[in-house]
From TrEMBL:
PANTHER family: RNA POLYMERASE ECF-TYPE SIGMA FACTO (PTHR43133), RNA POLYMERASE SIGMA FACTOR HI_1459-RELATED (PTHR43133:SF8). This is Uncharacterized protein. NCBIfam families: sigma70-ECF. One of its GO terms (cellular component) is cytosol. The lineage of its organism: Bacteria, Pseudomonadati, Planctomycetota, Planctomycetia, Gemmatales. Residues 134-186 form the RNA polymerase sigma factor 70 region 4 type domain. Keywords: DNA-binding, Sigma factor, Transcription, Transcription regulation, WD repeat. Residues 104-131 are annotated as: Disordered. Coiled coil: none annotated.
């Protein structure tokens, strides 16, 4: 089966007529899977050809190929030159494959060193053919951008001069002249290195159908769950490294970066290779200056203010990337466009005997999206009310209690008077389980969220409106604590609880105050928890060991971990005693979860305008799927004040990750 056959099975039976720039925009703005698949069809053979030439080994080339297109999936919204996507992909492919080659060379060197230490004799290795082929791509990557772009478009991607001119925005005569000059430059450079450019040396290589299908599925999983778990761990690691190193700076600097990386790669291979290994002729180049990657910072943007002043109790980004939800204490749910932040639609969780007879607005209206969208009905979500949980989708709205079953969407839950106040979806082998923690000493979970489910952990939770540590983990596991708040000896323990199978809990012990919030990486390898005295602990999700900690000096009420698994957002409350009664100061921290610093400074605080009363309510944090936007909402339905003293709604505060000025 060819890649074309595979793409037809994926729903792309005919080539997409859109230009490269239009395809890239469609994928970056709306996660159009068809647009990504067409880009894979157009440029996959060229990228795979680079990976095969540089690496030689087919499994290594497969990993590098998948890593390149995962970089595209992650960086597509940032590309500044969409018309030159083929040239950009070629540069990423050269650097990614070179990085893989360095890693492989170092691994082989360690293996040879181990064999030598055991005094075992091995024959010297045969000269690897990929060295010569890699030299060709290293020299091509070093060509000036205007020449490389013409050569990549025509000789690698198979475009005619007219097609290349349309793609690059040049006159056809300019394409012809630059293409001819690029061929002469490349031949001269290769001659100096003792390499002859033969016919077919830069030929595209057909992509194996299974590799193409796995790549598309991995990108789909990346957008749905934040992790590309469907490809090999080696490809995931390589993609992570490449994503951190690839920038969206202008193409001329991209070429310099590719050249310098190629030179560094050559040196690393030589250092990692024993003396009896054959060496390539040393490249005769002058090192070019490498620009620093642009520094970024978090900057507060225009907040989202609601006209009726309703207090916001929950915010959440949909996994499909097409909306985010804002819930209020009135029971209203507003949906907004994540790019323009324009209002899309409103749904109401209120008593309506013709639809949902038992619905009443609860203590806190909380919404959570299922990690994977419905194939036909859009993003699936669950939302709490006083007497249960209602399910719905962004296209059909909230389900009625007596509605006919909808495949892939759970039926509503009836939890009369239990008032759920925390909600998550837990990914598992049999779909996603929805978990609701209530104020009535019951935690409920249903692996397939079927109607009429029974509480799974009755009688264990006694949070009683308190913030609840709750984080989903892969494999139908939940990070939480199932102990009474009043029991100070056991409430300090956190538990990793399986929702299916034997109830073998893993205990995390290390907090010195009651844990109040938790967050976890999608792969479950990094866990973060916070307690009511302001201590943050980062845990190794595999060993259960605490790896780092920091005390923020104020009680934590919510945590969120960005998709990069590094940026950690934390909301703290600091009670103040002032003349005239109690006040509460809010603080927002943005931390590096991998290197917590002592006494970090908050990026925002209520400062000299603390809230009246003692804050004991809810806070909600939500990162966008690309990790560049953070939504923050704080509501306090239990502030000990008179209604006249309640502060005006803060709405939704917005922070954006932007280039540093």
């Amino acid at each position: 089966m060819t890649i074309a056959d595979t793409l037809r099975r994926l729903g792309c039976s005919a080539p997409d007529p859109r230009s490269d720039g239009e395809l890239l925009h469609g994928f970056a703005s709306a996660r159009d899977e068809g647009a990504f698949t067409e880009l894979l069809r157009r440029f996959g053979p060229t990228v795979y050809g680079v990976c095969r030439r540089v690496l030689g080994n087919v499994p290594d080339a497969d990993d590098a190929f998948q890593a390149v297109f995962l970089v595209l999936a992650r960086r597509a919204p940032e590309l500044r030159t969409p018309a030159g996507i083929g040239n950009w992909l070629y540069g990423v492919a050269v650097r990614t494959a070179t990085k893989a080659r360095i890693m492989n060379a170092k691994r082989r060197a360690r293996q040879r060193s181990d064999r030598t230490s055991r005094s075992v004799s091995y024959p010297p290795p045969v000269a690897p053919d990929p060295d010569t082929r890699a030299a060709i791509d290293a020299e091509l990557a070093a060509l000036p951008d205007r020449y490389r772009a013409a050569l990549v478009a025509c000789d690698l991607n198979g475009r005619t001069r007219r097609e290349a001119a349309r793609e690059l925005g040049w006159p056809e005569g300019t394409v012809a002249a630059r293409l001819a000059h690029a061929r002469r430059l490349l031949a001269a450079r290769l001659t100096r290195r003792g390499v002859t450019l033969t016919a077919g040396a830069l030929a595209a290589v057909p992509v194996p159908a299974s590799v193409a299908a796995e790549t598309v599925a991995a990108v789909r999983a990346l957008h749905a769950t934040g992790t590309a778990a469907l490809i090999s761990p080696a490809a995931q690691r390589l993609s992570d490294e490449a994503t951190r190193s690839v920038t969206t700076i202008p193409e001329r600097w991209l070429v310099w970066c590719g050249l310098v990386l190629a030179l560094v790669a050559g040196g690393a291979v030589l250092r990692a290779t024993p003396d009896h290994d054959p060496l390539l002729p040393a490249p005769q180049f002058v090192a070019a200056p490498v620009p620093r990657a642009a520094e970024v910072e978090w900057r507060e943007a225009q907040p989202i203010e609601l006209s009726d002043g309703g207090r916001v109790t929950s915010v959440a980004f949909a996994p499909g990337g097409k909306t985010f939800a804002v819930c209020r204490d009135s029971g209203d749910i507003d949906f907004f466009d994540p790019v323009t932040r324009k209002h899309q639609q409103r749904m109401a969780v209120r008593h309506d005997p013709t639809v949902n007879a038992n619905t009443e607005v609860g203590t806190s209206t909380v919404l959570a999206f299922r990690p994977t969208p419905h194939s036909a009905l859009g993003d699936v979500f669950a939302v709490t009310h006083k007497n249960g949980v209602i399910f719905g989708t962004t296209t059909i709205g909230l389900l009625a209690d007596n509605a006919a079953a909808v495949t892939g969407v759970p039926g509503n839950w009836a939890l009369k008077g239990l008032d759920p106040h925390a909600l998550v979806w837990v990914p598992g082998a049999d779909g996603s389980a929805c978990v609701a923690v209530t104020n009535g000493a019951v935690t409920t979970a249903a692996p397939k969220a079927a109607a009429g489910m029974e509480p799974q952990f009755p009688g264990e939770d006694k949070f009683r409106h308190k913030p609840t540590p709750l984080a989903p983990l892969p494999g139908s596991r939940l990070l939480t604590t199932f102990k009474a708040v009043e029991d100070t000896g056991t409430s300090l323990q956190l538990h990793i609880v399986p929702l299916t199978g034997p109830n073998k809990r893993v205990k995390l012990t290390g907090h010195r105050a009651r844990p109040t919030c938790a967050a976890a990486a999608p792969d479950g390898k990094t866990l973060v928890t916070g307690d009511e005295r302001g201590e943050v602990i980062v845990w190794d999700g595999e060993t259960g060991e605490a790896t780092s900690r920091v005390v923020l000096g104020a009680g934590l009420v919510q945590l969120a971990l960005a998709p990069d698994e590094r940026t950690l957002a934390a909301v703290c409350v600091r009670p103040l005693k002032v003349a005239g009664g109690e006040r509460t100061e809010l603080e927002l921290y943005l931390l590096d979860a991998r290197s917590l610093r002592a006494k970090p400074k908050p990026c925002w605080t209520t400062g000299d305008k603390p809230l009246p009363g003692r804050l004991e309510g809810t806070a909600s944090l939500a990162f966008s799927s690309n990790g560049k936007t953070l939504l923050v909402a704080v509501a306090d339905p239990f502030a000990r004040t008179t209604p006249a003293e309640l502060p005006k709604s803060m709405g939704v505060r917005v922070w954006e990750r932007v280039p540093k000025k």
